[in-house]
Amino acid sequence: MDALHRSVFRILLTHMMEDPHIIGAGMDLFLVSRNLERVADLATNIAEDVVFLVEGKTIKHHAELDEP
Q: How far apart, in Å, are the Cα atoms of 63 and each of 3, 6, 8, 49?
């Protein structure tokens, strides 16, 4: 979801630079993208808590950052 959010940002930025008249709409879409990314982060946190409650395992969605 993070990569998709970054991609949406780049696409919107390109379009807004090409046509300044769409900056307002572009910013609205960027905010939607940012909030959807935040919802995905919160859903991940909830899923981690459920796994911990049911299985007693601690899983972190940041584990992939620790890998080379």
A: 17, 20, 25, 15
Q: CA-CA distance, 67 to 55, in Å (whole number)?
A: 24
Q: pLDDT tens digit string along 8-65?
A: 999 999 999 999 999 999 999 999 999 999 999 999 999 999 999 999 888 886 655 5
pTM of the shown model: 0.74
If we measure between CA atoms, which residue out of 40, 59, 38, 39 comes closest to residue 49? 59
- For 18, the domain range is 2-66
CATH of residue 41's domain is: 1.20.58.220
Look at residues 65, 64, 4 and name the one whose alpha carbon lies nearest to residue 34: 4
Number of domains in the chain: 1
